[in-house]
Amino acid sequence: MIAVPHCLKLQVRYGETDQMGVVHHANYLAYFEEGRTRMMADLGCSYGSLERAGIGLPVRSIELRYRAPAYYEDELVVQTQVLGLRAASVSFGYEIRRLADGELIVTGKSELACITLGENRRVVPLPDSLRSLLEPFLASDPT
Known about the structure:
It is built from three helices and seven strands; from the N terminus they run E-H-H-E-E-E-E-E-E-H. It is α+β, with helices and mostly antiparallel strands. The chain has a single domain (6-134), classed as Hotdog Thioesterase (Thiol Ester Dehydrase, Chain A, Roll). A five-stranded antiparallel sheet has the order 1-4-5-6-3, covered by helices on one side. Strands 2-7 form a two-stranded antiparallel ribbon.
């Protein structure tokens, strides 16, 4: 991870767990998305502003690795970093840890394509404004 990844605190809600109080695996994708969208908004480029400008960033690929369970009412920290910038895509890395003890819960990566929105969707280069916001947050070691 970069020296100071973007951090977002979340609390596990009851509806995100199974009968045993364990976070259902699919919810980690939503946690990743929340970390990513909040990071971009905090940098001054919200998804809403991109979409109003006619640009979309759909997920092209995603992977996660479960390390430990999270439970109802756990406070979690979603750490998000930029792993890579290509001509028409951006990759993010994630770590989710339990706030109380720092235990690593899940890690993951996602790649998002840059497309035009509307009837004739097509892949386009990342806007220069977005690229310049994200470049300073590139991980020095994307492993």
